[in-house]
Write a structure and sequence with these properties.
The complex is a heterodimer of chains A (about 325) and B (about 350). With about 325 residues, chain A is mostly helical. Chain A has 13 helices and no strands. Chain B is mainly alpha-helical and about 350 residues long. The chains are: A mainly alpha (about 325), B mainly alpha (about 350). At the A-B interface, helix 4, helix 5, helix 8, helix 9 and helix 10 of A face helix 1, helix 3, helix 9, helix 10 and helix 12 of B.
Chain lengths: ~325, ~350
């Protein structure tokens, strides 16, 4: 993404309709989009469509297996598992998106600005990003909730703050690359203002990189958030979340050993879909600048590490 | 410039066959000296960048306590005994009457001497409880790395050698599934499979290696496996990709034509040149593994730093939380530096000045 000058052949243009269409042709992308649409649908309508009240306790129906009445059975309080999963989608997904939004704003803004604000700002911003990257996400978030109290905002803001360095680095690298391009020099010579250069020449070209990072970071945030809710940080029972459901499943493994598979699979499938989408767009947007001679770049989990993705590893 | 940068720029693709291991031995002594000096200079540069990072991240850590808005003295004394005079006295004793920066400096200074303060509630020194529990997570992380190298390495090599075959396709498929599974989910699945359904391993508990090594392994094998799967998948993918590329190179074909045994060609010629990206991934995963060990440790309820962190977060035992965060982030910083320096040294370019 960075470092290599983009040739005109590999240039990214959001306007060209050819690129999205060709990405959409990939089967993995189609499956990913269907999965994500399903998750989005559940996130919005899940609690309304849930066949039963997810909080409804029924002492006469503990640990029931799947039946017509309870399609996925009941949990340790006799609550309907399917309804809990459907209703829990909203909290699980929206909290992750919230964190990504915070990371995006805190990271991408300075990432673009740093190229134009001079060396000192750049140095300082980079050191802050470095420092944030040394804080292991789960530890940091738990520490923040210890200091500020356990709540949704207290947990999501630090997750977002720790996602910011990844956004910062990607945007900074991409901006740097475009800000030094000849057409920017030409535009400046013609008297274009900095705002104009950023808006027309930089922002538009950095957007695909930001989009790929957003997909990757959403996957990472989803993992972090589900682990946090698993630990009971951010959202506490009885409010249903995927991680929270997993946590109670773990406590009753002897009674219902297979219950944990469904929320686990939900998390994995969503994360997988986001990663597939990010991979496809990344491969597409960097096509033409990469040769087979550097296989690492072509496949590239390393790149994510280079861009400092603290989340996915710490939960991993 | 880090090794990842190098790889991003496609420079490792330029590692010449045979130079990775042999260059040091073949180079004239003067050049070798210069190279080690360059490595030292890089280490120095790394340290210079580290110092502000350590200060910043530890300051963030410390100021969390100040942000907490809680009144430690009142917490310690309890509601009945917290008369204004008593609170004032205790605040002075704890050094909380100084400005934040002074408090931070005192805290960091004491931390450098191994004193992380005491728990508000149990009065146990934080350093003591951390050092009691850290070995649990370190064992898990280290065993996970070993497992990842064995599992991922084998899968990657076999997949590359049998390129296009069913094993290769299987590895690719399994890798993409595994990389979406977070460690705590894998951990739960492993508990279900090997501790509840088939009672092969204990589902929880911990025995120190000094007590009994087989029992220690028995207790940490499942958590380590859970932690290692994602890294295994990373390693397998990296190794497969680079090995496939290296195996197509002329010098490998040449070695085969010369009649060298296949194992020797694979290990001494191909693997040595293909291992770079996988090693890099491993290096960058390692510090995060410790943080990841927390997930495994909580699922298997082992008495590690994760449990300690969660307990003290619940009781808002700020010194313990601060101490833990400081220890972990310092660990991450130091290991990152070591990994970077090692990888730089391993992939020093021909003249030692290139990167």
């Amino acid at each position: 993404m960075s470092g290599r000058g983009r040739t005109s052949r590999g240039r990214i243009s959001l306007r060209s309709a050819a690129r999205p269409r060709s990405v959409l042709r990939l089967p993995s992308v189609r499956v990913a989009i269907v999965v994500l649409a399903g998750v989005a649908f559940l996130a919005v309508f899940g609690s309304k469509l849930a066949p039963q009240n997810p909080l409804n306790i029924n002492a006469n129906a503990l640990f029931q297996g799947p039946s017509l009445h309870h399609l996925l059975g009941t949990d340790y309080l006799g609550r309907d598992v399917l309804s809990r999963l459907m209703a829990g989608t909203r909290l699980s997904v929206f909290t992750a998106l919230e964190a990504v939004g915070i990371g995006l704003v805190l990271g991408a803004g300075p990432g673009i600005a740093t190229v134009f604000l001079g060396r000192w700002f750049d140095f300082a911003a980079n050191r802050v990003a470095d420092a944030l990257m040394t804080l292991p996400s789960i530890f940091f978030v738990v520490a923040v909730t210890a200091a500020l109290g356990n709540g949704l905002v207290q947990a999501m803001v630090p997750v977002g703050v720790l996602l910011a360095p990844a956004f910062f680095r990607v945007t900074r690298a991409a901006t740097l690359e475009h800000a030094r391009a000849q057409y920017v020099e030409a535009a400046e010579l013609l008297g274009a203002s900095k705002v104009h250069v950023i808006r027309v020449h930089v922002l538009r070209k950095v957007l695909p990189n930001i989009a790929v990072t957003t997909a990757m970071m959403t996957a990472a945030a989803l993992l972090t958030v589900s682990f946090l809710t698993f630990l009971g940080i951010g959202v506490q029972p009885p409010a249903p979340t995927w991680g929270g459901i997993l946590s109670s499943d773990l406590d009753y493994l002897n009674q219902a050993p297979w219950a944990a598979f469904i929320p686990g699979a939900l998390i994995a499938i969503t994360v997988g879909a986001l990663n597939a989408l990010a991979d496809a767009f990344r491969d597409r947007s960097s096509a033409g600048t990469l040769s087979l001679a550097d296989p690492v770049i072509a496949t590239d989990p390393t790149l994510e590490r280079a861009y400092g993705d603290p989340q996915s590893q710490s939960v991993a | 410039m880090t090794v990842v940068d190098l790889i991003r720029h496609g420079k490792t693709g330029a590692i010449r066959p045979g130079t990775t291991g042999a260059a040091g031995a073949a180079a004239p002594p003067g050049l070798r000296l210069r190279r080690s000096r360059v490595a030292l200079a890089r280490l120095g540069g790394g340290l210079a960048v580290l110092v502000p990072i350590v200060f910043l991240s530890s300051f963030i850590t410390y100021s969390l306590g100040a942000l907490s808005n809680s009144d430690p003295a009142a917490t310690i004394l309890g509601q009945d005994a917290a008369t204004p005079a008593a609170v004032l006295r205790l605040n002075r004793a704890l050094g909380l009457d100084h400005p934040l920066v002074v408090q931070y400096w005192n805290w960091l200074f004491r931390a450098l001497h191994g004193n992380l303060g005491r728990s508000y509630f149990t009065q146990i020194p934080v350093a003591q409880s951390v050092s009691q529990r850290l070995p649990v997570d370190l064992s898990i992380a280290l065993l996970a790395i070993v497992l990842a190298v064995i599992i991922g390495g084998t899968a990657g090599v076999v997949a590359a050698v049998r390129r296009g075959g069913w094993f290769d396709r299987g590895v690719t498929a399994v890798c993409s599934v595994v990389s979406t599974l977070p460690a705590f989910v894998v951990g739960i699945i492993l508990v279900v499979l090997f501790a509840v359904t088939v009672r092969l391993f204990p589902a929880n508990g911990y025995v120190g290696p000094s007590t009994s090594i087989p029992q220690w392994l028995e207790h940490i094998i499942l958590p380590s496996l859970a932690l290692s799967l994602q890294v295994s998948a990373d390693i397998a993918r990296q190794l497969r990709t680079s090995l496939v590329e290296v195996l197509d190179r002329d010098y490998i074909v040449g070695a085969k034509v010369r009649g060298l045994p296949q194992r020797r060609v694979l290990v001494r010629h191909a693997l040595r040149n293909a291992a770079g990206p996988a090693l890099t991934v491993l290096g960058y995963d390692f510090p995060q593994m410790l943080a990841g060990a927390v997930a495994a440790e909580v699922v298997f309820s082992l008495p590690g730093i994760g449990q300690l962190l969660l307990q003290s977060a619940e009781t808002r035992d700020i010194p313990v939380v601060q101490g833990l965060l400081l220890v972990i982030s310092t660990f991450v910083i130091v290991v990152n530096l070591v990994v970077n320096t090692t990888l730089n040294w391993l992939y020093r370019t021909g003249d030692g000045l290139g990167a």
